[in-house]
Amino acid sequence: HSSMIAEKVLGKDVTGPFIDFCIHKLLYFFGKNKSGYLLESLKEDGTVWDTPEGRIVNPGHIFEGMWFCIDYARGMDDDVISSALSIIQDTAEVAVDRTYGGVIHRFDCYGKEGEDTLKTDTGELKPDDKVDWVNCESLYAFALAAVLTGNETSIEQFRHLHQFCQTHFKPERGGDWYPVLDREGTPLRKNKGGKHRVAFHVPRALMNLSVLFETVS
């Protein structure tokens, strides 16, 4: 995504080959990975690390990567868009919490029992915790899917997530979102700052959504 932004300065001749390389790595990451999901890493031979850490599927990273691909390919490469949309829906089938709403932090690619808590930069997180940046990236990915396909399922997917975020992440008096919620949507932490709080996810997602809907309205 940084290369997409830098293209305005460096030119497509410089950034294009690198972006194409990255998109190919993202969309054709499967090979011997038979899990059906994009994973954080694979063995050198392309197979899955069959460990709790190796089997982790991180929906936030997947949705973020897929909207990068779609944004770059719009108007140029329908195959890239089709592949990215398919990956979004396959991931959403498991990542969207149909009981309480929102997108969970992670899940096991084989449905096995993993570690109950995972130490991250934002503290210990359970698999079904709801993290602000994960839901931000999901929002824009779902919005793109809704706009590009016009599919009612995709539209409802975006609407439901948008409502969840407005109800649970956004404080009643406005301001920055809460960083982490439990599965039911109750804030686990209310501190808005901190050493590891990444500042760009919320404003970038809201900006991208505004520009997208203004463009297609």
Written description of the protein model:
The relative contact order is 0.11. Helix 3 (59-73) runs parallel beside helix 5. Helices cover 51% and strands 8% of the residues. The protein has a 3-stranded antiparallel sheet. A two-stranded antiparallel sheet has the order 1-2. Strands 3-4 form a two-stranded antiparallel sheet. The chain has a single domain (58-216), classed as Glycosyltransferase, CATH 1.50.10. A hairpin with a 5-residue loop joins strand 6 (180-181) and strand 7 (187-189). It is mainly alpha-helical. The longest helix is centred in the middle third of the chain and has 18 residues, at 78-95. It has 7 helices and 7 strands.
